[in-house]
Amino acid sequence: xxxxxxxxxxxxxxxxxxxxxxxxxxxxxxxxxxxxxxxxxxxxxxxxxxxxxxxxxxxxxxxxxxxxxxxxxxxxxxxxxxxxxxxxxxxxxxxxxxxxxxxxxxxxxxxxxxxxxxxxxxxxxxxxxxxxxxxxxxxxxxxxxxxxxxxxxxxxxxxxxxxxxxxxxxxxxxxxxxxxxxxxxxxxxxxxxxxxxxxxxxxxxxxxxxxxxxxxx
Length: 217
What we know:
This protein is of the alpha+beta class. The chain has 2 domains: 6-80, Arc Repressor Mutant, subunit A, CATH 1.10.10.10; 84-205, Umud Fragment, subunit A. It is built from 4 helices and 10 strands; from the N terminus they run αααββαββββββββ. The longest helix is centred in the first third of the chain and has 17 residues, at 6-22.
């Protein structure tokens, strides 16, 4: 491969084969063990070199966020179009709940989905956004941002707790509106920590439940 050392070529081939077999990238530890390296530093150096040479992209803060961007053959083409989305935990579509946590899981999706705009995924808990066709168990794809346009569907921090709502401005105040009349809007009180945007929702993934007793005896 042009521009790569022999070891860098081997690492890139290992990444492709691992993704082909598993459907997701390896961790730094798994790469270190595969190549018999003594520390993670050697792996990180190779990954940084591959990133500089435009062969991979990485997302800081996630152990498996490696995206192969320059496949050399057809077998690696699917992996080259893939993007790793960390699953950062749950978000409440109801009353605000404890802040999202990094669960260490992830999904590998074709980067053409959502135009590659997302940064992480959250599982929805609660029914306040059913009017937007977002129900418990759905996965929302979120693009990190601290600012958004009025009317955006956002993940927000309210007094240190997370919620999924529609971001609306009424005069100088921010209101987080649900899409279910059974739930009240959230308007941070004066003197509170207030509301801040974590990110905007750019897509929704739904996992349909298995039919009960279908074709069974």
